[in-house]
Design a protein that fits this description.
By secondary structure, this protein is α/β, with parallel strands linked by helices. It is built from 14 helices and 14 strands. The chain has 2 domains: 193 residues, Response regulator (Rossmann fold, 3-Layer(aba) Sandwich), CATH 3.40.50.2300; 193 residues, 3-Layer(aba) Sandwich (Rossmann fold). The N terminus and C terminus are likely disordered. Bound molecules: phenylalanine.
């Protein structure tokens, strides 16, 4: 009996000490150190505010990626877990929740936000704490300039703005343009500047620049001023919530010119807000769920099966890619040590994502083509019209289009051939040129 108790207490104390070891291993992993427990990743998005469809899609995309990663055995045998925070689409709240994710939850990396102003508010917190942050979809150039721990897997607004300006001038033969932008959004302000720069360079003229804020109930004052100048195209670099109403009010005022926009239009809510008024509109975006490329169609199928048959918008696709890029970097880093992880994210090269091939350059940006999509309210589809490549990156040839490592580039080629592709449509922005080590 005595021996039994001795053995029992021995086993018990071994169990106890191993539990302690496990526990301490866990606490280093959930910080920025290395370890063997679950890998905790923070996500901050807008789930209840003005841009909540962005947050919902982003959350879904990340969740799908993490579920796939865990089902395949995790990252180096460790499970990835998410801590998701709602920032209500407000910059101050974005900063607060990222502070919480890092200090309280001790996440090893942060994914988010979508709207550039929110990411710009929160990124300094991650930079200060030296916790890597990857924004799936914030396109304002200043975002990754916050510091060496801030990354993105999407293109930038200098490229996006100049791409739609080229489309306006070359494909729509626009000579004059008006811009109606959101004065409180870094995204909108940047696109206004970059569009004007390129459109002017191409010989066009911006005849009016009008402003709104996200709380404006009505845009008819600004639209009437623009109508009087009768521009060939109207560029609205805003988010879907206002864009839909602007489109309706513009058409009500008899303005039938093409409306142009950016990725901020992309939302399942756009169709109800804008309806038929969205006809004759074109936007730049990151990908199209209607791209027949099998890589994309597989993703669309899996996503729809998981999330109520809703097709993944570009937010969902970029979010999915951001989580996969992070997991790949943790794998290559051999753990979650923040310096090693930062360097591994920066070393991402030719990663085959659903939004194309992702390579992170020295400025911590991804250099990728943009697609111009035609907005089709009748079928609620965004239809690919042309693909615009950054300078130095060309449309894939038939020869390389068969290799799967090219991801959806293969199909961009088909789209380009089938539609309005203009071979002169490569980006001439010298800024992009200097970051073109991504042409590999
Ligand atoms: N690019 C936008 C921004 O930086 C966010 C966005 C991306 C919105 C993709 C929709 C689709 O603010």
């Amino acid at each position: 009996m005595k021996n039994f108790f001795l053995a029992f207490s021995l086993i018990f104390s071994i169990l106890l000490s191993s539990a302690c070891v496990d526990k301490s291993a866990n606490s280093t992993t959930t910080g920025s150190g290395d370890g063997s427990g679950d890998i905790k990743v923070g996500v901050y998005v807008d789930l209840t505010g003005q841009t909540s469809s962005f947050g919902q899609s982003t959350k879904n995309g990340i969740q799908l990626a993490v579920d796939e990663i865990n089902a395949a055995g995790g990252v180096n045998g460790r499970k990835m877990t998410l801590v998701i925070e709602d920032d209500q689409g407000r910059p101050e709240q974005a900063k607060t929740v990222v502070e919480k994710l890092i200090k309280q939850d001790k996440v090893v990396a942060v994914l988010g936000e979508v709207a550039s102003s929110n990411t710009l508010a929160a990124a300094p917190v991650a930079q200060e704490a030296k916790i890597p942050m990857i924004t799936p979809s914030s396109t304002n150039p200043r975002v990754t300039q916050v510091g060496d721990h801030i990354f993105r897997v999407c293109f930038l607004d200098d490229f996006q703005g100049s791409s739609i300006a080229k489309f306006a001038a070359n494909n729509l033969s626009g000579k004059t343009a008006a811009i109606l932008g959101d004065v409180n959004s870094d995204y909108s302000k940047g696109l206004t500047e970059f569009f004007e720069k390129e459109f002017t360079k191409l010989g066009g003229r911006v005849v009016a620049k009008e402003a709104y804020t996200q709380t404006d109930p009505d845009f008819k004052g600004q639209l009437t001023k623009i109508r009087n100048l009768n521009p060939d195209v109207l560029y609205v670099p805003g988010y879907y919530g206002q864009v839909g109403i602007i489109a309706r009010q513009a058409r009500e005022l008899g303005m039938n010119m093409p409306l142009l926009g950016g990725d901020g239009w992309d939302s399942p809510d756009l169709w109800n807000l804008g309806g038929e008024a969205l006809k004759n509109s074109y936007i730049t975006n990151h990908y199209s769920a209607d791209d027949p490329n099998p890589v994309i169609q597989n993703f669309v199928k899996t996503y729809k099966a998981k999330f109520n048959n809703v097709a993944p918008d570009s937010l969902a696709a970029l979010a999915y890619d951001s989580a996969k890029v992070l997991a790949d970097a943790i794998k290559r880093a051999g753990g979650t040590d923040s310096v090693k992880l930062r360097d591994a994210i920066n070393a991402t090269k030719d990663f085959a994502g659903v939004t194309g091939t992702i390579s992170i350059n020295a400025e911590r940006n991804a250099v990728k083509p943009a697609v111009v999509l035609e907005v089709n309210p009748a079928t609620k589809q965004l239809l690919p019209r042309t693909t615009i490549y950054p300078e130095g990156m060309s449309a894939p040839t038939a020869a390389n289009s068969n290799t799967m490592s090219n991801g959806n580039m293969m199909n961009s080629n088909q789209i380009s051939n089938g539609n309005m592709m203009n071979s002169s449509m490569t980006n001439s922005n010298s800024n992009m040129n200097s970051t073109m080590n991504a042409n590999r």
